[in-house]
Amino acid sequence: MSSLFYKDISTNEYVSGCLLCDEAPCRKACPHSIEVDTIIRSLRFENKAGAVNKLPNLLPCDTCEEKPCKEACLKGKINESVPIDKVMKAISTESRVKENEVDLEIDFCGVKCENPFFLSSSVVGSNYEMVAKAFEMGWAGVAFKTIGMFVPKEVSPRFTALSKENVPFVGFKNIEQISDHTLEENIEFLKRLKKDYPSKIIVASIMGQNEEEWTKLAKLMTEAGADIIECNFSCPHMTSKGVGSDVGQNPDLVALYTKATRKGTNLPILAKMTPNIGNMEIPAMAAMEAGATGIAAINTIKSIMNLNLENFESEPNVEGKTSVGGYSGKAVKPIALRFIHDMKACEELKDAPISGMGGIETWKDAAEFMALGCENLQITTSVMQYGYRIIDDLINGMKLYLSSQGYKNISEIVGSALPNIVPTDKLDRDSICYPRFDRQKCIGCGRCYLSCYDGGHQAIKVDINTRMPILLVDKCVGCQLCSTVCPARAVEPGKRVKK
């Protein structure tokens, strides 16, 4: 695959500091009308091919002495401006990628979707105006914020983020509950949305407190014009007993409430699963046997984070107190993919449609979920951080990737990675893949040596004159820790040999 579909170390460090401003002043300042902000945003969202395609045929940055875009960059008010000219020059040498005709339309639970990208059930889809804006921008559907028979009493604040080194947003925690609108208001939102956007897909997420409520809510959502019903069995921080993840961990309750929901609707039903469990397949099977059409996974992970070691309070800090909340964001993607794989690997669930979520930010994240068997995708945390506009690079990046690989329809990649995930006893244990050092890229920082000696098998030494790493083949076990930690990407898997 072309290098255009992978992060480029030469530009990634430049663009990672971009504030991704609304109505970016850098673009307004460019005298050549270059889409500076959207180009950088595409690079941030792993859509390098899309960024290259947005460049003018003749890049004027070399002759632009004033650099007004850099002068206008708001990051300069914090520390240093983004080196916009360097970013543009770095990608200008790349060849453009032709976007062939690719169809992103996909059938999910018998419902035709213009693309697989939906807003997930959360604050990002909680009233008419918000969802209408998202629809106008290209989102195919919404799982509307969970509707119940009651309006919860919320706290303030209710969000916090986990950071690491210079990355301000690794993970995200929330202690927010279901919709804070009344049942009547939510029904009106759904009716208006379906009337004004008949081709868009409305997933009505519901949460009852007993069988009667599940049945009644399903009936009301069906009458309001929903296309799919999603049963929220998995919110990890509801204040009421017997709801949220307390349900999702109990297969009997999952079955009971799925049956109750089925009594109230003939629409497809998704059972939204909790990751706060060892084997998601067990409640998922219970849901399918009880009448669900498909599965939605994963919801947020129970978490506590950001302890203040001066006063021992935690975040979100509500008058000095907090509670266990739901963890989401890019950091949970590997966990989400593991649960989705486990369900697809389960004989009883292999044909169940899955709406995947958990850490999707870019088209590449989305493609990974689909390659493991998802036919639909839901996104929240990335929207909360960057806005609905991420749909531009989700769609464009996915189309460019698919066309570059010769695919005609997005459905062709669904499940493609499943045969390559095997039990540990099926992996080749009779050979070693040694690392290969690229002397041209190596900067002599010694990170590979430090990691190998202190965290590996002492299989690397450093040349005292050149600071270049030297592999001690008799000690190397091929673990590839060195290639994992190399900041210059000067180490990569090399030759595989028999032990």
Describe the structure.
It is a single chain. The chain is 32% helix and 17% strand. The chain is of the alpha/beta class and 499 residues long. It has an eight-stranded parallel beta barrel, surrounded by eight helices. Strand 5 (159-164) and strand 6 form a beta hairpin. Helix 9 crosses helix 11 (251-263). The longest helix has 14 residues, at 183-196. It is globular.
Key phrases:
single chain, 499 residues, alpha/beta, eight-stranded parallel β-barrel, four-stranded antiparallel beta sheet, 18 helices, 18 strands, globular
Describe the SSE topology.
Elements: H1 9-15, H2 25-29, H3 36-44, H4 48-53, H5 68-72, H6 84-92, E1 106-108, E2 111-113, E3 117-119, H7 128-137, E4 141-147, E5 159-164, E6 167-174, H8 183-196, E7 201-206, H9 211-224, E8 228-232, H10 245-248, H11 251-263, E9 269-272, H12 281-289, E10 294-297, E11 301-303, E12 325-328, H13 333-345, E13 354-356, H14 363-371, E14 376-379, H15 381-386, H16 391-404, E15 431-437, H17 447-455, E16 460-462, E17 469-471, H18 481-485, E18 491-498
Parallel strand pairs: 3-4, 3-14, 4-7, 7-8, 8-9, 9-10, 10-13, 13-14
Antiparallel strand pairs: 1-2, 5-6, 6-12, 11-12, 15-18, 16-17
Helix pairs in contact: 1-6, 9-11, 11-12, 14-16
